[in-house]
Design a protein that fits this description.
- The chain has helices at 7-17, 19-34, 38-51, 55-62, 66-72, 81-95.
- The chain is 66% helix and 0% strand.
- The longest helix is centred in the N-terminal third of the chain and has 16 residues, at 19-34.
């Protein structure tokens, strides 16, 4: 018999025991957004929210309804730049990290 684990539960457990993993997920979500892959970025952000701050607390931090945040980070979500900035800002503050941008010149 094959043992399987729920992927989302695996992410939650890993984030709880490894803060660097949570930071890497945030970095990956930001990189994906900036690289033109918003669908994948939203799903990573959704998993990260579930594993850290939670949607109810994120709603308080962003002054947005929890249900709206769920929709924004769903596979078909379409958050505005203001909402996206608020979500990233809340998670960044929760994880106590700062963003740093590197510009790599492509030749």
């Amino acid at each position: 018999m094959t043992l399987t684990r729920d992927f989302k539960q695996t992410v939650v457990e890993r984030v709880q025991r490894d803060p660097e993993f949570a930071k890497a997920l945030l970095d990956e979500a930001a990189t994906l957004f900036l690289s033109g892959e918003p669908d994948a970025a939203r799903l990573i952000l959704r998993d990260l929210v579930n594993a850290t701050v939670g949607f109810e607390h994120l709603a308080e931090l962003t002054n947005k309804p929890s249900k709206s945040l769920h929709r924004m980070l769903s596979p078909k979500g379409n958050p505005s730049m203001d909402n996206l900035a608020a979500i990233f800002g809340a998670i960044r503050n929760w994880l106590k990290v700062a963003f740093s941008v590197q510009v790599i010149e492509v030749v």
